[in-house]
Amino acid sequence: MKTDDRLSAGKCFASVFAAFCCLGVSAAFTGLSARTAAAADAVEVKLGDPSLTGGVPGTGPITLPEIEQWLDDPANFVELKPILPLGLSQGAAQITGLDENPLTRAKIELGRQLYFDTRLSKNSTVSCASCHDPSMGYSAHTKTGIGIDGQAGGRNSPVAYNRILSGKQFWDGRVDSLEAQAVGPIANPIEMGFTHEGVVKRLASIPVYAKQFERVFGGVTIDAVGQAIAAFERVIVTAPSPYDYNEQWRPFQDLEPEDLEDDPELAQLYAEAKAGVEAHPMSESAKRGREIFFTEKGNCTACHVGANLADEKYHNIGVGMDKEKPDVGRFAVTKDEKDYGAFKTPTVRNVALTAPYMHDGSVATLEEVVEWYDKGGHPSKHLSEKIRPLKLTEQEQADLVEFMKACTGPTPTVETSRLPADS
Questions:
Q1: Cα separation of 11 and 135, whole Å?
Q2: Distance between CA 8 and CA 277 in Å, rounded?
Q3: Which one-letter DSSP state was computed for residue 68?
Q4: By the 8 A CB rule, do 204 and 220 touch?
Q5: Nearest to 253 by CA among 6, 4, 5, 2
Q6: Which neighbouring-strand residues pair with 387?
Q7: Burial letters 36-70, b for 16+ CB under 10 A, else e
Q8: For tag attachment on the chain, is the N or C end more exposed, with fewer CB atoms within 10 Å?
């Protein structure tokens, strides 16, 4: 590449990068002017900031004096403008739900407590985290979710991170919002086995919860429970992975230091990208896997596209279609024949942490996932037209697995045990 071409490519990246940021922020906050006066003073916060999920300061169960002191800080009620980390940032225009449910630290903290509290289940044994555990990649390492009294659900536990970029929820998209998803399991007899009325009454009887709901929402309601949990889940995002640092570096990789001498802004972007890729390198195998993933050879981007590497759509890939009574998936919601056996595309981000795979947890490893797609799924009259045999070599399959592993980034540090005292 000639020097002028390299400079042009680098400057093009800088322009596109700036455009992405401006477009994303503008699109995500179009409704800002229509909100309350407090919203005009919203404060930007980078998602992944541990102060959002670190809990009320202190140790042991949260006491009423502690929560009252914390709630007296006006900063905890200021609306937040979330800024997505590198990689996810290109999906800023996809941010969902904030017009209806703006973020504040008080709301996020209340949601954190609810998320980890087993008192939301009838017999106080199951929490949201039981099936969406941070230590298990915000999923569960069981084929299906395990609920109250050890009952097994019918589907694998979806991940609870990067939900800020997702509208419809569950494998079949049967609810329109994260708020609706958050309260669904409470009343499911297999999951938490309670009732919405029962959980509202229980939370209202716990002083620390009652005080927070009063200050944040004006009182305890099931809608408020859903809004709080959703607020917490929306700040759980994946930090940049080796894949993201590699993508940031690619437009600069052919530039030479002398190409940057007359452009300080480009030189700074170059230095940041170089430092990132050196600190978080991709293996050569993962780089080869990237080429397979993003080309017709792997056909992965037929479904795994966008900032979250998921198209938010529903596809029948043949899993479970050989059963006598297969799970009909999205069809149960839409009654549209094209949705028979179709399930929502999961993200590839942090997929290495969330085994087993597929909607029924029937595939144990990423190697087996690649083998499934390589053979073209299971024949079915409802099989998506996007599924076809890939005919990859063993090395190519291994490279594809390495690429998916390179899409792994940290999630925020979260306080999991500091919850409201009983009285």
A1: 41
A2: 21
A3: H
A4: yes
A5: 6
A6: none
A7: eeebeebeebebbbeebbebbeeeeebbeebbeeb
A8: C
* pLDDT score of 33: 39
Nearest 10 degrees: Cα torsion 123, 126, 128, 129: 150
Mean pLDDT of the residues in the chain:
92
Q: Which residues, at least 6 apart from 86, have a Cβ–Cβ distance to it below 8 Å?
A: 240, 244, 245, 248, 276
What does the pLDDT look like over 82-132, one tens digit per residue? 999 999 999 999 999 999 999 999 999 999 999 999 999 999 999 999 999
> Of 346, 398, 345, 351, which Cα lies nearest the Cα of 371?
398
Strand partners, 343: 315
291's CB contacts (< 8 A; 6+ apart) are 297
| Eight-class DSSP state of 157 | P
Residue 198 structure tokens: 């029962």
Which residue reads 């940049």 in tokens? 240
Phi, psi of 390, rounded to the nearest 5 degrees: -100, -30
The whole-angstrom separation of Cα 164 and Cα 178 is 9
d(CA 177, CA 96): 9
User: How far apart, in whole angstroms, are the C-alpha atoms of residue 276 and residue 189?
Assistant: 47
Residue the block writes with tokens 């966008």? 306
Number of C-alpha atoms within 13 angstroms, CB side, residue 24? 23
CA–CA separation, 183 vs 131, rounded Å? 14
* d(C-alpha 144, C-alpha 357), whole Å: 10
d(CA 219, CA 122): 21
Q: Are strands 314-315 and 343-344 parallel, antiparallel or unpaired?
A: antiparallel
Identify the pLDDT of residue 237: 98
The DSSP symbol for 357 reads B
Is residue 266 scored above 90 in pLDDT?
A: yes
- How many C-beta atoms lie closer than 10 Å to residue 262's C-beta? 9
Is 241 in contact with 407 (CB distance < 8 Å)?
A: yes
Task: Please tell me the distance from the alpha carbon of residue 290 to that of residue 400, in angstroms, as a whole number.
Answer: 7
Distance CA 125, CA 216 (A): 27
> Helices then strands (H, E): number in the chain?
14, 4
CA distance 81 to 254: 36
Report the C-alpha gap between 207 and 200 in whole angstroms.
13
What is the rounded distance in angstroms from the CA atom of residue 417 to the CA atom of residue 67?
Answer: 16
Give the CA angle between residues 362, 364, 367 to the nearest 5°.
Answer: 120
Type of residue found at 143: K
